[in-house]
Write a structure and sequence with these properties.
The structure holds 3 protein chains of 3 kinds. Chain B is an alpha+beta fold. Chain B is built from 17 helices and 15 strands. The chains are: A alpha/beta, B alpha+beta, C alpha+beta. Strand 9 of chain B pairs antiparallel with strand 3 of chain C.
């Protein structure tokens, strides 16, 4: 294989490695060199695990040489969002409060990646504790969008998406609580999936909002994403909310990519009114393509979606305020103010004040308020009722259609710093993605073109019922194939050189 | 801070009615913890029985221990509770260094068991009285790590420079049992409280769900109490913690009645607070003020799914229920042919199971009761321990009884044997050998002692010879003294009269 | 919807163990206010008879068996601690108000 290894898809690399056309170590080295060359300006990575990556690559090569059976993605490099515990490697969740912490255990996702012989290159940047839509809230500095380095790569998983878009890795793992996989995918021209809640184990994922979080696969193509999905999904006895059922055959669906007769619903409340013009345009063009491919499109109404943002920004901070309480400086991580005179309460408060950034503190206080006595019913209690209403909206819609679609985000990548001072404006980025998490169903974002006004990627969101993840790959695969036909290549190939 | 004053108990009860409630925590004897597979063994080296889950490391998640749920349901059934058909866990949020997650997974408004009762018996001058203590709820939660405090003079929190945490205990399943307020017991309040905790402990032992040792912390008790004048609303209640024995339960209730009566008599307000009980003084001191009740911000635990016990499961557990202590007591009363007073004194002494075990080991029923409620109870009370902790086994009682029957021991010597066993000097045979406690029945030795006594009291000897046989007692007494109680008194008397040529 | 006072924010900060400075208190008070007004809209649509949803998955009775599994190595546990003494986590003095 003579072409640039970093421009290949995961599927192609895996096949080449298995066929001994190239070694896993060569592939890993090529990607580590790419990271060294460009990550200075992209800042997708917080930590590069070159030693363990090369060791893992070596093991894969030895296995292949010995004729031992290896998985379908053996030897393929991957970028891991720094919110997942990896034994012995720094895991910060983008926060100062965990600076230097090395978990004494692997998250289930990492254990499965290791078992699949996937080579983890390092940990990627993120909004602190996954709170954000731009990765600007990382305590370690922002990540830059490879399409335009003055712009955000999306958030909270901007690092993983940027790593893909910068060709630093062909695979990445993110986590999605309200859009943190899908919105970065949308603004970087890559593919990202939030699986059904419970499809991928949360054991070892530093929790944000436990009833909304899901780890998920990210890549540059629908097939690569499907291969990664298959490697990480499945029941985990360490996660009580893990689905105890067979993983749907997402790879077969991605390969079949045939949507003749599929019924697609366009969500009226997410149809693009008020969205950036170019986003709407590309979205509607994609709808035409879907129809050309044999799907029928109807409009559905999900009237309670307008309350989704409000419910989300009550549920998330409430659960997060509790999940983040453990960061108190007593057992690991940052401890400040321990001068021998300060009490434990003072040390806890000083540590958290210094260790958490403003967005985290803001949400902790919002959550503390929403749960506090006298306010629980009015806020958290009400928000949980809205979830029921949103779920029933989805159920009603899915009674008549197989998948729903919407633009993934209202705009393309905005400028760094543009929305930092206005939290509410930042929260509005998630308006299309949030309902999915509230209901626990699955969704994918894939690129459908560049917005004419700024030549930046636009993403389309496909939503499917809980446990029907294969429909995402069926529809996504079909749409992607049609677009590749039209353009001659994946959209990501048009990203400017770094 | 003003000096705490107390109104004597009887006086307090002339004016006020006590209302009390008990919150007991039972540490379950499961092999592994509530949410993870770490061992629950007591006494392990610090921080050797911890994992990401019970340490609350970032990313960790709990998974419910099935046996803990079963034990809770069985406890609920034993306490005549309704079992929830669907319930959830909830997070109780507060910061404390012994709490790895800074929230405790517990149950809030959806306990697994609720609305039950436990009948307890207390002794009154009119005889045993049955009091029904209503149970509000039984729910599941987790234990915290253990703190030790360093640098201060007392080893307690006050004045400590810093503290040390061992998380071995964190995550051990804890069952909380809360009574409904108990009113109308008047002067019996302390006894009812004690009887309740004692009966609860017996129930846990019968179920085999916990070893319920108060001194080891596997049974903990908090006492809530308020006073009110007859006809008035219930008063403000205080909470007393660190109540670590049955005796302390009784004393804590009593002391709090006396203290609150004094406060109210002075026209002051009882403060809603948490107090700390002290074994040595039998009094409590003020701890954290609960004026502003803690805001625990409870919400349903999102990392766990609801527990929904099916009818079939509950019935299957019901079929595994052992004989309840109250049923057992009624049965034994009939078997041993004793009346309710005798039964009550056995129960109060904590001797029931021990007597039953002794009888099972072959001891005569009357003898078993005699020893356990007599000499052994005396020793237990004198040394401030529970009967069960005396380290005297039913088998040993049987051995001793056999030796008495064969004449090798008498009652007095037997008591010395028990003393030796209790002091850890060994088993029955070794104590007898080491202390030389055999009954002296060798005639020669006895005659020698008799002659010695006679020559020391010649006037008594004359009296006997002249027919005053009762005077023999003084000589027998002297011989018993000189043989350190090891002579067979009856035999001494026979030999003495023979010696003097006098008949009975 | 009443606006959130500075005192309330200070109380929240205490509950959440955040040592906020005076400026931060004011700043957060106004930001929280704006957010709370926005989210308050949800009460428009929720009626009493709508059940709350705490779990997207309708599962119940997920248990593990009562089996002992390996604990962590103590050295690994204590090596991440900010302070250690006597094989225990050393923590600053705990106040117990009298």
């Amino acid at each position: 294989m003579t072409e640039d290894l970093t421009r290949q898809s995961a599927a192609v690399l895996a096949a080449a490695i298995a066929a001994k056309e190239v070694s896993a170590q060569e592939v890993a080295t090529a990607h580590l060199e790419r990271i060294a060359a460009v990550d200075g300006v992209v800042h997708a990575f917080l930590h590069i695990s070159s030693d363990s990556a090369m060791a893992q690559a070596k093991r894969v090569d030895e296995k292949i040489a010995a004729g031992t059976e290896v998985g379908p993605l053996a030897g393929v490099p991957l970028a891991l969002k720094d919110v997942l515990a990896m034994h012995g490697e720094p895991t910060t969740a983008g926060s100062r409060i965990l600076q230097g912490w090395k978990p004494p255990y692997d998250s289930t996702v990492v254990a499965r990646l290791r078992a699949a012989d996937i080579v983890i290159l390092g940990k990627t940047n993120m909004d602190e504790f996954a709170m954000g839509s731009s990765t600007e809230h990382s305590a370690y500095g922002p990540t830059h969008n490879p399409w335009d380095l003055t712009r955000i790569p999306g958030g909270s998983g901007g690092g993983s998406a940027a790593a893909l878009a910068a060709f630093e890795a062909p695979l990445a793992i993110g986590t999605d609580t309200g859009g943190s996989i899908r919105q970065p995918a949308s603004v970087t021209g890559t593919v990202g999936v939030k699986p059904t809640y419970g499809a991928v184990s949360r054991y070892g994922q530093i929790a944000l909002a436990s009833s909304l979080d899901q780890p998920g696969p990210c890549a540059r193509s629908v097939l690569d994403t499907a291969l990664l999905h298959a490697a990480i999904a499945g029941h985990d006895p360490m996660d009580s909310t893990s689905i105890n059922a067979a993983v749907p055959d997402v790879v077969a669906a991605a390969r079949r990519a045939d949507i003749r007769g599929m019924r697609i619903g366009v969500v009226k409340e997410l149809s693009g009114d008020g969205y950036q013009a170019g986003v709407s345009q590309r979205y509607h063009e994609a709808l035409s393509i879907l129809e050309d491919l044999g799907a029928t499109i109807t409009e559905v109404s999900c009237p309670h979606f307008e309350y989704a943002l409000g419910a989300y920004y009550l549920i998330l901070p409430s659960e997060a305020s509790s999940n983040l309480a453990r960061f108190d400086g007593m057992r690991y991580g940052l401890r400040t103010g321990d001068d021998g005179a300060n009490s434990v309460e003072q040390v806890m408060s000083l540590t958290r004040e210094q260790g958490f950034g403003p967005e985290v503190k803001r949400r902790i206080m919002l959550g503390t308020y929403a749960l506090s006595s006298g306010y629980y019913e009015a806020y958290y209690g009400q928000a949980q009722k809205v979830r029921t209403l949103i779920t029933s909206d989805f159920n009603a819609a899915f009674a008549n259609v197989d998948v729903l679609v919407s633009p993934t985000a209202p705009t393309t990548a905005f400028k760094l710093g543009e929305k930092l001072d206005d939290p509410l404006a930042m929260y509005l980025n998630d308006v299309a993605t949030i309902p999915v998490n509230l209901a626990g169903i699955c969704a994918m974002s894939l690129p459908v073109g560049l917005a004419p006004e700024d030549q930046l990627p636009v993403g389309l969101q496909i939503m499917a019922p809980a446990m029907a993840d294969e429909r995402l790959y069926l529809a996504g695969g079909a749409l992607e194939a049609a677009l590749v036909d039209r353009w001659g290549h994946l959209l990501i190939e048009e990203v400017p050189s770094l | 801070m003003s000096q705490t004053t107390y109104v004597p108990f009887e006086q307090a009860l002339k004016v006020y009615e006590p209302v009390f409630g008990l919150e007991t925590h039972v540490e379950l004897g499961t092999k592994s913890k509530m949410w993870c597979g770490c061992s629950t063994d007591f006494g392990a080296d610090a921080n050797t029985q911890v994992c990401p889950v019970c340490l609350g490391l970032p990313g960790s998640m709990p998974v419910v221990n099935r046996v803990a749920v079963e034990s809770t349901i069985r406890i609920g059934l034993a306490l005549n509770c309704s079992i929830a058909t669907w319930c959830r866990f909830a997070r109780k949020n507060y910061f404390y260094p012994d709490m790895p997650k800074d929230y405790q997974i517990s149950q809030y408004d959806e306990p697994l068991c609720f609305d039950g009762y436990l009948d307890v018996t207390v002794e009154t001058p009119e005889g045993p009285q049955v009091v029904r203590v209503e149970i509000e709820r039984v729910h599941m939660e987790e234990d915290t790590g253990k703190l030790t405090h360093a640098g201060g003079a007392t080893g307690r929190i006050h004045g400590a420079d810093y503290s040390l945490v061992d998380y071995n205990r964190a995550g051990i399943p804890l069952i909380e049992i809360v009574t409904k307020p108990v009113s109308g017991t008047g002067a019996l309040a302390p006894a009812v409280a004690r009887a309740y905790v004692s009966e609860l402990r017996d129930v846990m032992r019968a179920l085999g769900v916990s070893d319920v040792r108060m001194e080891e912390g596997s049974l903990r008790c908090d006492v809530n109490l308020s006073l009110n004048r007859p006809g008035e609303q219930w008063g403000t209640r205080s909470e007393t913690k660190n109540v670590n024995s049955l005796r302390s339960v009784e004393r804590a209730v009593r002391s709090e009645i006396e203290r609150q009566a004094s406060v109210l008599d002075l026209g002051d307000r009882v403060i809603q607070e948490t107090r700390h009980f002290h074994e040595d003084t039998g009094r409590s001191t003020s701890g954290r003020s609960k004026e502003q009740a803690e805001d625990y911000r409870y919400f349903p635990e999102p990392d766990l799914v609801p527990v929904a016990p099916s009818d079939a499961w509950v019935e299957q557990l019901r079929s595994t229920m052992p004989e309840m202590p109250s049923v057992k007591r009624a049965r034994l009363q009939a078997e041993w042919n004793i009346n309710e007073f005798e039964l009550a004194s056995l129960v109060n002494a904590g001797a029931l199971d021990l007597v039953e075990a002794s009888i099972a080991a072959g001891v005569d029923s009357v003898a078993a009761r005699k020893w356990w409620t007599g000499e052994l109870l005396r020793v237990a009370n004198d040394t401030g321990v529970e009967l069960a902790d005396l380290q005297v086994s039913p088998g040993q009682i049987r051995e001793i009884e056999e030796l008495i029957a064969s004449g090798a021991l008498n009652d007095k010597l037997a008591r010395q044997v028990f003393e030796g066993i209790i002091h850890g000097e060994g088993d029955v045979a070794s104590v007898i050998a080491a202390r030389g406690l055999a009954v002296v029945s060798d005639d020669t030795a006895l005659l020698a002692a008799i002659d010695e006594a006679l020559s020391a009291q010649p006037d008594v000897a004359d009296k006997i010879r002249s027919g005053k046989v009762q005077a023999a007692g003084a000589i027998v007494g002297a011989v018993m003294k000189s043989t350190k109680g090891q002579a067979d008194a009856a035999k001494v008397r026979i030999l003495l009269l023979e010696r003097l040529g006098v008949s009975e | 919807m009443t606006s959130i006072s500075r005192d309330e924010v200070a109380h929240l900060a205490h509950l959440a163990r955040l040592d906020l400075g005076a400026e931060e208190l004011d700043h957060y008070a106004s930001q929280l206010d704006v957010i709370l007004q926005a989210v308050a809209r949800i009460s428009e649509v929720t009626a009493d008879d709508i059940p709350a949803m705490s779990h997207p998955v309708p599962m119940t009775n997920v248990f593990r068996e009562d089996v002992v599994t390996a604990s962590l190595n103590r050295a690994d546990v204590l090596s991440m601690a900010p302070a250690v003494e006597d094989d225990r986590f050393k923590v600053p003095r705990i106040l117990d108000e009298e």
